[in-house]
Structure formats: C-alpha cells, structure tokens
Amino acid sequence: PATLTKQSILKTGDPDIALRYALTYQKPIAMGITLSVALPLGYNENEALLTGYGSFSEMLRLDVSSSFNALSWISIYSAFNQRSQGYADEFQYGVEGGLTTTNKKLTFIARIAGVKALGDDKDADHVNPQSLFSNFKEYLSISPEVIYHVDARWGVTLGASFAVTGKNIFANPAFTVGVFNRFQKNKEIPGNKPAGQD
User: Fold this and answer.
1) Which pLDDT score is estimated for 61?
2) If DSSP states are collapsed to H, E and C, what string results for 124-192?
3) Whether the Cβ atoms of residue 90 and residue 81 lie closer than 8 Å to each other
4) Ramachandran assignment for 72, one of left (phi > 0), alpha (psi -120 to 50 degrees), beta (any other)
C-alpha cells in the first residue's frame, strides 16, 4: 500500500517455551504432543511496527508421522492456540511429505500449512493486515523445498512459500536459501525420522 513507509526497529519478540512428550516411540507410526506458551515480551506499543502480540498464548499440538521407507516420510499436525487480550483463538493444521533420491543427494519436501481464526471478527481489536501480528489472521500456504546434500555433513536448501488463500495478511511469496552442517558426521545421509524416533 502507498501508505507504508520504511521503518526499522531492534526489539525482542515473543519467545516460546515448549514441552514435548512422545506418545509412541520407535513405532511404525510416531505420535507426539507439545504444549507451548508464548511470553508477551515483544514490542506492542503502536500499530506501525510490532515485534510481538503483547499477550500470553498457550498452544496444544498433536503430531503424527510415519516413514514409508528409509527415503520417504509423511507427517501431519493439528493444534489449538488459546490467546488473550482480545486476540482470537486459532486452529492450526498442516501436512508435510518428503522424498530422498536413491543416491541420497537430493531431498524434496512439500508442506501445506493453515491457520483458522475462531470467533466473530466484527468490531474486533488488533486487526491490521499490514502487520505480522494482526488479529483474525488466516491463511493456507504451500511450501516446496529442495535440499542438496553436498556430502554427509554439508548441504544447501532452497525453499519457497505461497499463500493459496489469506485474510488479514500480506500474501506475497517468500523465498529462502540456506546452508547447513551436521556437527556429527554420519556414515550416510538419513531420511527424515518421524516425531519421537530421534
């Protein structure tokens, strides 16, 4: 929008504290439950540039995942995020699938993630589509990623994220590039292990 101006800020965000429990361990289907709490330490004093919501939130998340073989996997999750200070509660969901080539040089990953705000947004506070921390934010996104394994320790990642639908958000595509290193050298590049089987 033409009303946007260039701004910068250096403040802390809202940190998360989480506790995860593996419901199943070293089973064909792995299940894990996570309880996380977001602390309102972010900057939330104006409607221009924020670094947090300025409110406590508690989220309960369930992950279910499985490996078809050593080179492919699928994982799904759902979560309920309870929020305060007038922010709408949220239902979050997603699915991820991955496949590594037989020579273990390339890994292809596809993710679908969504957020559904609960309640009536009529006359709601904190609604600002120009902010990352808008109330009643909803979206459905698709995020493909490719990983190139240089060797057993080093690799390069290329990813993108696209919003299929959205409400009270910026819907521009996002692109990522990364380099990673495994501190402990493995004899071979493993497939992605389901939750609870690390």
Assistant:
1) 98
2) CCCCCCCCCCCCCCEEEEEEEEEEEECCCCEEEEEEEEEEEEEECCCCCCEEEEEEEECCCCCCCCCCC
3) yes
4) beta
Can you name the residues that pair with 22 across neighbouring β-strands?
32
Among residues 124, 127, 138, which one has the least CA distance to residue 166?
138
Going by C-alpha positions, the residue among 95, 96, 141 that lies closest to residue 116 is 141
Task: Using alpha carbons, select from 114, 111, 116, 181 the residue that is nearest to residue 149.
Answer: 181
Distance CA 47, CA 67 (A): 45
Calpha distance 1→116 (Å, rounded): 25
- What pLDDT is attached to residue 168? 81
With residues binned 3-state (H G I as helix, E B as strand, rest as coil), the percentages for the chain, rounded to 5, are: 0, 50, 50
pTM of the entire structure?
A: 0.79
Of 55 and 105, more confident: 105
